UniProtKB/TrEMBL annotation:
<dbReference type="InterPro" id="IPR008979">
    <property type="entry name" value="Galactose-bd-like_sf"/>
</dbReference>
<dbReference type="Pfam" id="PF00703">
    <property type="entry name" value="Glyco_hydro_2"/>
</dbReference>
<dbReference type="InterPro" id="IPR006103">
    <property type="entry name" value="Glyco_hydro_2_cat"/>
</dbReference>
<dbReference type="InterPro" id="IPR013783">
    <property type="entry name" value="Ig-like_fold"/>
</dbReference>
<feature type="domain" description="Glycoside hydrolase family 2 immunoglobulin-like beta-sandwich">
    <location>
        <begin position="188"/>
        <end position="277"/>
    </location>
</feature>
<dbReference type="Pfam" id="PF02837">
    <property type="entry name" value="Glyco_hydro_2_N"/>
</dbReference>
<protein>
    <recommendedName>
        <fullName>Beta-glucuronidase</fullName>
        <ecNumber>3.2.1.31</ecNumber>
    </recommendedName>
</protein>
<dbReference type="InterPro" id="IPR006104">
    <property type="entry name" value="Glyco_hydro_2_N"/>
</dbReference>
<keyword id="KW-0326">Glycosidase</keyword>
<dbReference type="InterPro" id="IPR023230">
    <property type="entry name" value="Glyco_hydro_2_CS"/>
</dbReference>
<feature type="domain" description="Glycoside hydrolase family 2 catalytic">
    <location>
        <begin position="279"/>
        <end position="598"/>
    </location>
</feature>
<dbReference type="InterPro" id="IPR006101">
    <property type="entry name" value="Glyco_hydro_2"/>
</dbReference>
<feature type="domain" description="Glycosyl hydrolases family 2 sugar binding">
    <location>
        <begin position="19"/>
        <end position="184"/>
    </location>
</feature>
<comment type="similarity">
    <text>Belongs to the glycosyl hydrolase 2 family.</text>
</comment>
<dbReference type="InterPro" id="IPR036156">
    <property type="entry name" value="Beta-gal/glucu_dom_sf"/>
</dbReference>
<dbReference type="Pfam" id="PF02836">
    <property type="entry name" value="Glyco_hydro_2_C"/>
</dbReference>
<dbReference type="InterPro" id="IPR017853">
    <property type="entry name" value="GH"/>
</dbReference>
Amino acid sequence: MLNFSELYPCSNQARMAQLLDGMWKFRFDPEEKGLQEGWQHKLPDPISMPVPASFSDFFTTKEERDYCGDFWYETEVFVPREWEKQEVEIRFGSITHRAGVYCNGSLTTTHEGGFLPVIARVTDHVKFGEVNTFIVKANNELNEESLPCGATAVLSDGRKLARPYFDFFNYSGIQRSVWLVSKPIESIEDYSVEYELNGEDAVVHYEIRTNGNHEVSFELFDEEKQQVAKCTGRQGSVIIPKAHLWNVGKAYLYQAVMRIWNGETLIDEYSSKIGIRTVKIEGIEIQINGKAVYLKGFGKHEDFEVIGRGFNWGVLKRDFECMKWIGANCFRTSHYPYAEEWYQFADEEGFLIIDEVPAVGMMRSTRNFADAGTGKFTRFFETPTVPNLLKAHLQAVEEMIVRDKNHPSVIAWSLFNEPETTSEQSKDYFTTVFNAARALDPQKRPMTGAFEKNSQPEICQCYQLCDFICLNRYYGWYIKGGPELVDAREAFLIEMNKWKDKNLNIPFVFTEFGTDTLAAEHKLPSIMWSQEYQNEYLDMNFEIFDQFDFIQGELVWNFADFQTTEGIMRVNGNKKGIFNRARQPKSAAFVLKKRWESLD
Ligand code: GCB
């Protein structure tokens, strides 16, 4: 069990949360001399750096943009004297990829993994009624023992360079919001809810974890702020007559208010929005509230000009507007859990999320997309580093499920993207991951993973672990593209018939299919990279999807063009976006809009 609370910060009569976003101080540390020189107390000659944001795209030199190694952040915060009898925490939405957090010079926590919260208890280190210094020592190197997987090269001039085994740019930094939190010493650490539907009524089962013994209450309020249920005890069930269900595109959110009491005196309070809905796989259907839903939408990235992977409410708003306009109802958080605000907004908008752990790059032969096709195939799960990788994977799965389990928008967990899945070792590895994940989700949501083309039905050893199967397929792009589209269609059909012959009686969702398309390129007749080709490719894919009843969703790759590592496979980024990087539609957006609106 996690030894800290992942709960999103909130302010109320028992707690205070202060946002620390803004301009921080920053320094690269290529010689790794910071600790020895005492940078944990004060950064010498720092530059300024916005938080939250990736550092890379602010710079005008390649050395800085592509920086790989240690780097430091610093900020100063006044901590009020009134917080003296409280627990104080600093909470980073994420720090990519690993970090140590110092408060007034003392190390308060370390964290591995760049896409989930870093939470440091600093109560014993802060000076109340004074200005305090918070310093972060971070590192963005990639290896095969942590997620996502990659390597770190050293260039002839001594600089380190990230060599991801994936295509998205290795954006790094404090990329999500930072909060200073004060909460009672005895506090609510976690809660979970699960639902049962009974005709028009709903039963809400809840469980609250605190770090003390005092009595706990649980209340629910509807959107008119009317109390609809009240209960005491750490766990229990409440019945909501004529419950408003949270539905796809029609969200309804109740406010859950949890309190710890000492008699009449309030000790702690935490409140959060919840949505009553069920998720179930029933034969070939994905059911929300007992009704089949066909998933329409995207694989996305957290990616935008200038701020890189930095969280920004404006980008989030535009992305949701574009997704609603086009008729989408779902996205996969490829290839890592996103900032929590994405899930909060999806809860509000009635969007469905397949939440993905940062397990990407687990196939050496696709390293930097350059080795692909050269026959350099090594089994990934046979190396001595695998036990450490598994530890990191299990930790990320636990942190993700604990963090996101109460969001109604989250309908499934994706536990990997495109690993090697054909060896006995891969089967053992992922059996451990799936078993661990299944024990963690009180709502027992479906578990899945995204399989690439080598995971063919006759040799894949891991699809059996999934409640529904996600396929990433590029017939007509990486396989038999352009003039060979007709053969791509044949090859695609052959594969899909093999899956059909397995009679698995579970849903399949396409979590990737797409073509690189330059927003300004037109060609008649079409040619690969032109807008016309993207449309023809999509039409071919849709024609195949519509032939198989077990295909229950299509999440096109990608929502928008995004930045990648430089290389011969990408023209300043991955251009498979349906929208360009500025979030303006390519012509394929209109093709998708027409189809998705007609599928309603
Ligand atoms: C994939 C990967 C994704 C890439 C995509 C592509 O299979 O999962 O991260 O961006 O292909 O465009 O090649």
